[in-house]
Structure formats: C-alpha cells, structure tokens
Write a structure and sequence with these properties.
Layout (H helix, E strand, L loop, with lengths): L3 H12 L3 H12 L2 H27 L4 H16 L16 H9 L3 H13 L2 H22 L3 H4 L2 H23 L4
Helix pairs in contact: 1-6, 1-7, 2-3, 2-5, 2-7, 3-5, 3-6, 3-7, 4-6, 4-9, 6-7
C-alpha cells in the first residue's frame, strides 16, 4: 500500500485535463470505446512498467531522503505545468497506438511512478497504481462522449489538481531537506 495508493492518486491528479485525456476523448468519438481502452491499457502498462522498474533500480543507489526529494520533485513537476493555460481541442489520431504511446512516454505520470517505485521499492505496486490512476482519469472522457467537456468544470478541476500536487510535492521536498 506504500506505493499503489500514492501512485494512483498522484497519477489521477496529474492526468486531469491533460493531453492524454483529450486524445482518448477524441479517439473515443471516432472509434468504439473498447479498442481505445485496450490500446490505452497496453501503452500505459508498458510505459509505467518501464518507469517503475527503472525507479526501483535507481532507488537502491539513493538515500531515503534523496528518494523522498525525488518523489516531491515528481509531484511539483507534474503540478506546475497544469497551471498554464489549457491547449486547444485534440483531433482524432490516425494511428491510435502511436499517438497514445507518444503521449504516455516521458510524461508526468511516468516520472511519478518512477519516483514512487524508487521510494517504496515496489515496482509492481507502483506500476499498478499508475495504471489504475490513468484508467480512472480516462474513463469519464471515454464513456461520456460528446458531453464530456461540457458536463465537467475541467479547468477548475485541473487547477485544483495542480495545487494539490504542488502542495504535496513541496511538503515532501521540505521534509526531505529537513527544513521542518
């Protein structure tokens, strides 16, 4: 539980209103939902699995305070860009697998799972939490269809998620640096 719940919550917050959510929404409008969900799970599991095992390998080289600082930095780096203005709507991708793989590799969720796996040394649980978080974030736009952006205060949710990530990340960083 030291990895699965924090990874799930942090990734869920980090994916709120993001590029991958818009991409899944656009793909869900153009294709049946089940194949889109399957491709999303495949690309997410691959990307976050690589991140989790990489984080676990690096975690053995770091002190406990350095691992906590890494996790705090991952949360700050996930939350800060969320305060920037939102992008324009995304067009449906022609190659769904490539588009989702591109959006999943090198994003904030992967860094969060990397850092949590390094901190908790449980890569499987960190990856599972990340996959659960991504899936939970992607289900509303996929299942709500055309009603999704209008039915939810997405910008407000994005700013609130950013603030939560920033506060948690700064708190972890301050604790890791032993400033409190």
């Amino acid at each position: 539980m030291d990895a699965i719940l924090p990874a799930m919550l942090a990734v869920l917050l980090a994916e709120t209103g993001g590029k991958t959510q818009g991409l899944v929404h656009a793909a869900g409008l153009a294709r049946p939902e089940l194949p889109v969900l399957g491709v999303l799970l495949l690309t997410t599991l691959t990307g976050l699995g690589v991140a989790a095992f990489g984080g676990s390998a690096i975690g053995h080289l770091l002190t406990p305070d350095a691992r906590a600082l890494l996790a705090g930095m991952a949360l700050v780096f996930a939350g800060a860009p969320m305060l920037l203005p939102h992008r324009k709507p995304i067009a449906p991708p022609r190659h769904l697998v490539l588009a989702l793989a591109k959006s999943q590799f090198g994003d904030a969720s992967q860094f969060i799972v990397f850092a949590i796996a390094a901190r908790a040394d449980t890569p499987v649980l960190a990856a599972m939490g990340g996959v659960f978080g991504v899936t939970a974030a992607m289900l509303p736009p996929l299942l709500m269809g055309k009603a999704w952006p209008g039915k939810m205060p997405l910008n407000l949710m994005r700013v609130m998620a950013a603030i939560l990530l920033l506060v948690a990340g700064i708190w972890m960083g301050i604790g890791a640096l032993r400033l409190i």
